[in-house]
Amino acid sequence: MDEGGVHQRRTSDAKGGETPELHPAALEDILDSESDYFSPPGSPSTRPRLSRNSFSYQDDWETFPPLDQLTVFDLLDNLSLSQRLERLQRSLNSQREKVKKQQEKLRSTSKNARDRVVGEWKRRVPTADEQLEKYRRRMKTGVERLSQRWNAAAAVTLREKISFIAGVLNIFISGYLLGSFPEYFYIWFSAQLAYFMPIRFYRYHAIGYHYFLADLCYFVNVLCMLSIWAFPQSKRLFISTFCLTFGNNAVAIAMWRNSMVFHSMDKVVSLFIHIMPPVTLHCLVHLTSLDVLKERFPAIYDIKTSEPGSPEHFGLFSMMIWATVPYMIWQMSYHLFITVRRADKIAAGRPTSFTWLRKSYAKAWIGRLVLSLPESLQAPAFMMIQYLYALLTMIPCPIWLWSRWASGIFITGLFILSIHNGATYYIDVFGKRFQKELEQLKKEVAQWQSSPEGAMAPITPGMAAAAAHPDGKQSDYTSAKGSHDNANIEKIPLLDSTGVSTAIEGGTRK
Asked: Name one GO molecular function term (predicted).
C-alpha cells in the first residue's frame, strides 16, 4: 500500500467524525512504509541500527521504545505525562516544606538547648558579686547563730530571771529559818507549796505532762499537809508520812536527777517537792522543842517521848506496815484512774512515770525483764518492783527518825547531790551545747572554703588582721588547735566585725 492510500484513509476517517483507530494491519502498513515522514531526518528510508557506542544526536531517541514495540498504553502514558509531572512537582514542594520545618525545629531546639546550657552555666558559676553576697549571707547567719548562743544569758526571759532570784532567795531564807526559827519552817514550806503547785499544774497541763502530777512525790506532799494541818495527833499518819518522805521521795532526787538550776522554774519546783518535805520533818522531829511539839504536834511528841517496847515506839517492821497502807491506796488509785481509764490517751503518746521509766531502763536488766513479759503483765510487774523499791528505801528510816545527826547528814548529802546535778547541767549541758555550735560553724566555714564556690569567693582586705591579735601573734586557741580546719577558719574575716564584736561584748558585759 502506497502513501497516497494511507493519506486518503486518514482523511476519510476524519471526515466521518470518528476517532481514528490503529489496527494491527494499519500499524504494519505504517511501519513497512518507506516514507521519509516517519524516518529520522538525514537518514535513508531504511531504519539504521542504533549503537550505544555512538555519541550522535541519535542517542536522545534511545529513551523511547522502538516503533515496532509501541503500544496503545505507551501513547496513553505520554498523554498523562503532564499530570505525573504536576504530582512530582507537588511532592517536591511538600518535601521541601518538610525539610524547612525540620530545619526550623532543629534550629529552635539547638537554640533552646544552648539557652539552657548557658542558664545552667550561669546558675552554677555565679558572678563575683553573687558569690560575695552568698558568702556574706552564710557567714552572717553562722555568726548570728553563734552570737545568740553566746548571749544566751542576756536573752533569758523575765520569768527565768524571776525564777533565778526566787531560787537564790529560797536558799537564803530557808537556811536562815533552819538556824534561827526551825519550829516555823513548816509554815514556810506550806506557803511555798501553795504557791508552786498551781504553777506546776498549769504548766504541766499546758504541755501535756499533767499525768505526772499523780506520781507518789505529789501524794507525799499531800500527806505532809494532812499530817501538819489536818491530823497532827495521828501517830500512824505521821509515821507513814515520815517513811515515805525520807524513803522513796528523798531518794528520787538521785533517781530522777533533780538539780538546783535557779533559772529554770521547772527544775526548782521538782527539787522543792522532793527535798523540802524531809527538811520540814527534820525540823519538826529534831529541831523543835518538846513544849512546842506537845502543844502543836502531839503525835510527834508522843513518838519522841515513848519508851522502847511501847506501842508508840515504832520499829522498822511497824513503820513499813503503816507506810504500806497509804502507799497501796495511792498505787490502786493511780492504776485505776491513770493506767486503766486513760489507757487510750497514754497509748496515743501522753507520757507517764511508767512509760518514762520503761523507756529509760529499756536497756537495763530490769527493763529487759519487764519488757519480756506479756503486755498485760508489764504494769503489775512494774507496780510490784516499785513497791519493793519503796520498801528498800524505808530500811534506814528508823535511823533518820531517832538520830538527829544521821538525819542531818542524809539531808545535807541530798542537797549536795542536787547542787552537783545543777553544776553538771550548767557546765556540761550549756558548755557542750555552745561548743557544738562553735564546731558546727567551723565545719560549715571549712566546707564552704573547700567547695568550688568558696574557692572562687573573693577575699576581702584585712583577712590576716582578723585571724591574728593586734600584736601580730595568733590567738591561743588557734595555736593550741593547729589543725587544717582551724587554719581555714582563722582566715575568714568577720563581715560585720563592728556589729558582731559589739554584740558579744554587750552580752559579756551583761
From this structure: acyltransferase activity
Collect all residues with Cβ–Cβ distance below 8 Å to 286 and sequence separation of at least 6: 404, 407, 408
- Of residues 437, 453, 444, 442, the one with CA closest to residue 133: 453
Query: How many residues belong to the chain?
Result: 510
Residue with cell 499518819: 237
Name the grid cell of 419.
547542787
The residue among 162, 145, 144, 150 whose CA lies nearest residue 508 is 150
Cell of 76: 496513553
Q: Are 269 and 247 in contact (CB under 8 A)?
A: no
364 backbone φψ class: left, alpha, beta (φ>0; ψ -120 to 50): beta
> Cell 513544849 belongs to which residue?
291
CA angle 397, 403, 408 (to 5 degrees): 85
Coarse DSSP helix, strand, coil percentages of the chain, rounded to the nearest 5 percent: 75, 0, 25
Residue 468 has φ and ψ, to the nearest 5°, of -130, 160
Residue 45 Cα distances to 48, 454, 486, angstroms: 9, 99, 113
CA 282 – CA 299 distance, rounded (Å): 15
End-to-end CA distance of the chain, in Å?
140
